[in-house]
């Protein structure tokens, strides 16, 4: 009988770009999300210029855990190492507690070596030595039925009435990733976030994400006489649709286009075979948070893990209220020019 080979110790190191073991591990792990995929980190780096890092825990050549990180540098908001950068979830995914603790410790060591005062894990367990941050965000999701009729019937009564009104107007809907959809989405999204008083992300971020995810992403748009009223950029992962970057113009309210785009995203996700829609996170107390509550989605308070000096980027904070009000009054062209350099530091 052959003697068993030596068992090596668990080790954590920086993953090599293009390591073919990473994506299968993420897709097979129960807690894996598309934010954990290496191509998300790569797209964020290309789209924002913020550097990506990817930690790997392995034993005997087998992956036991991963932690994607983005080094976000900002003169306004400080430097932070985030998992996952520009995502709403992330954090360590691993096969055991030992790998989780080692990856978290390595992330903090990396943050200090990079001169980042803060490290943040947007998901998973809160490791030893880290502080739980909660009460700022909630996540919203729901299961999807099998038919259009069942979907419409499952919507909260008030919002169902709004969707029916929208369906009675002469509105058109479409989905795609072509230049027309990309241009329309950015016009709508830029106006929407300006109206909320926040700077728009660089267009290059959306372009990089769409290019990276291919047929695992699309844009759904509601049109009126050729004008885009509401738009949503969506990702598809593990049978779940995640509407991620979206919004509506001021005109969208008149035509109930914001309600229709939610319904249309879910309807088209069903056609793709998705069983669930994850509408991401919203800051508690904001308009998007209230809107998702009106849809009666299942709300789940988010708990993040933070180490170091917590930075303040909540627009509801006292120090930002006047700035938000001033930003809402900016002409759209000026907000579109000033916003991306600021927003790339939010992450």
What is this structure's SSE topology?
Blueprint: E1 11-14, H1 22-28, H2 38-48, E2 51-59, E3 62-72, E4 80-83, E5 93-94, H3 97-113, E6 118-121, E7 131-143, H4 148-154, H5 157-168, E8 172-176, H6 179-196, H7 203-213, E9 217-224, E10 227-237, E11 240-248, H8 252-255, H9 257-271, E12 276-283, H10 287-294, E13 298-308, H11 321-328, H12 332-343
Parallel strand pairs: 4-6, 11-12
Antiparallel strand pairs: 1-2, 2-3, 3-4, 3-5, 6-13, 7-12, 7-13, 8-9, 9-10, 10-11
How would you describe this protein?
It is a single chain. With 347 residues, the protein is an alpha+beta fold. It has two domains: 11-129, Gcn5-related N-acetyltransferase (GNAT) (Aminopeptidase, 3-Layer(aba) Sandwich), CATH 3.40.630.30; 138-302, Aminopeptidase. It is 37% helix and 29% strand. It is built from twelve helices and 13 strands. It has helices at residues 22-28, 38-48, 97-113, 148-154, 157-168, 179-196, 203-213, 252-255, 257-271, 287-294, 321-328, 332-343; strands spanning 11-14, 51-59, 62-72, 80-83, 93-94, 118-121, 131-143, 172-176, 217-224, 227-237, 240-248, 276-283, 298-308. Strands 1, 2, 3, 4, 5, 6, 7, 8, 9, 10, 11, 12 and 13 form a 13-stranded mixed β-sheet that branches. Strand 2 and strand 3 (62-72) form a beta hairpin. Helix 2 runs antiparallel to helix 7 and helix 5 packs across helix 9. The longest helix is centred in the middle third of the chain and has 18 residues, at 179-196. It starts with 10 loop residues before the first strand and ends with a helix. 42% of the residues are buried. The mean pLDDT is 92.
């Amino acid at each position: 009988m052959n003697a068993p080979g030596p068992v090596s110790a668990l080790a954590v190191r920086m993953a090599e770009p293009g390591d073919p073991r990473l994506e299968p591990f993420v897709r097979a792990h129960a807690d894996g999300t598309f934010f954990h995929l290496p191509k998300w980190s790569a797209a964020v780096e290309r789209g924002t210029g913020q550097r990506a890092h990817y930690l790997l825990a392995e034993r005997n050549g087998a992956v036991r855990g991963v932690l994607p990180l983005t080094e976000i540098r900002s003169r306004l908001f400080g430097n932070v190492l985030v998992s996952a950068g520009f995502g709403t979830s992330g954090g360590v995914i691993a096969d055991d507690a030992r790998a989780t603790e080692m990856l978290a410790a390595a992330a903090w060591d990396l943050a200090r070596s990079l001169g980042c005062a803060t490290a943040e894990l947007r998901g998973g367990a809160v490791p030893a030595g880290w502080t739980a941050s909660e009460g700022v965000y909630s996540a919203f999701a729901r299961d999807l039925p099998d038919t259009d009729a069942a979907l419409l019937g499952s919507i909260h009564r008030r919002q169902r009435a709004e969707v029916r009104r929208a369906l009675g107007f002469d509105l058109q809907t479409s989905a795609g990733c072509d230049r027309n959809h990309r241009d329309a989405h950015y016009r709508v999204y830029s106006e929407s976030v300006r109206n909320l008083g926040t700077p728009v992300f660089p267009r290059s971020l959306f372009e990089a994400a769409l290019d990276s995810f291919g047929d695992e992403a699309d844009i759904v748009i509601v049109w009126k006489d050729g004008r885009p009223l509401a738009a949503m950029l969506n990702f598809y992962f593990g049978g779940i649709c995640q509407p991620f970057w979206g919004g509506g113009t001021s005109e969208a309210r008149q035509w109930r286009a914001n309600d229709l785009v939610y319904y249309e995203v879910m309807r088209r996700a069903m056609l793709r075979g998705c069983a669930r829609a994850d509408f991401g996170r919203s800051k508690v107390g904001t308009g998007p948070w209230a809107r998702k509550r009106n849809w009666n989605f299942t709300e789940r308070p988010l708990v993040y893990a933070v180490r170091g000096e917590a930075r303040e980027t909540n627009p509801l904070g006292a120090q930002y209220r006047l700035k938000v009000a001033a930003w809402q009054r900016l002409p759209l062209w000026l907000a579109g020019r000033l916003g991306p350099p600021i927003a790339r530091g939010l992450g």
